[in-house]
Hints:
With 314 residues, the chain is mainly α. It has one domain: NCX, central ion-binding region (A middle domain of Talin 1), CATH 1.20.1420. Helix content is 81%, strand content 3%. It has eleven helices and four strands, in the order H-H-H-E-H-E-H-H-H-H-H-E-H-E-H. Helix 6 runs antiparallel to helix 7.
Amino acid sequence: MHSFFLLITGFIFLYYGGELLVRGSVVIAKRARISRLVAGMTVVSFATSSPELFVSLEAIFNESSDIVLGNIIGSNIANIALVLGLTSILFNINISNKTLFIDYPFLLCSTVVVGFVLYFFGVISAFIGFIFLLFLSSFLYYIIVKSRQENDNSIDALVEENNTSFLKSLLFLFFGIFLLKYGADFLVSSAIDISNYLNIEERIIAVTVVAIGTSIPELATSIVAALKKEVDLAVGNIIGSNIFNLLAVLGTTAIFKDVKVVNSNILSIDYFSMLLLTLIFGILIYFFTKGVLDRKKGVLLVVIYVFYIYFTIK
């Protein structure tokens, strides 16, 4: 009973921590005159991926590589199938050319690279983690340079800066980090306890319960963006978050301690499902009413996610 209470408390802390981090980071980025396009692709995406980072760091220090990989892979699956699926059921999402020709190809490339490392090495070492971060930095440098000729106001959908002072934004930022830290502590410790009590693999808890919990900020951000008619930002947020999960979260975690493949199902089931879903997502946005995610596609994505969860826990 105590573990379930900590699990719920962890989810609440992660949700509000991620929300505060998004609000504080975006306002600070705007006041620092960082490009809106870059802020949306970097600050917002990283902020909504912060629960995955904190949970992964907490898990690796508890010698739980299964939770690290399960959390990241499961979160990426949930982001595409559940978050984008639900968002596109509510709103038709127009996919921008930037997403089609820059962001999605880089996501697919990152997914393949991570899979190659996991399959052929079975471990993400500190050196490989550094390479991941370098790979991500190169991508960010590219979009920063490219954004200098663009004027994207989509970041406005997430924050109203008129009534938000810089000091208040800093308080949001630090309090958000505080909630994320303790939310991650509660979530990881309770997930380990529950998996032991119910005799369930840590991997299953990670790719289902933990992954859905850490994807809540992405869901909230995407819904808010869609409600404010910034549906393209919903896709950018998800793709950006998935890229950060694979390269920043895995890379940063590996620098502290090697991330090893302990449970082979992480590769044979979960990673394969993530890669397949990423490819399906690509097919949906490049073909079949190209550049649009409509209600039918959203229902398909959610159905795929339901089947994935069913076959994972059965």
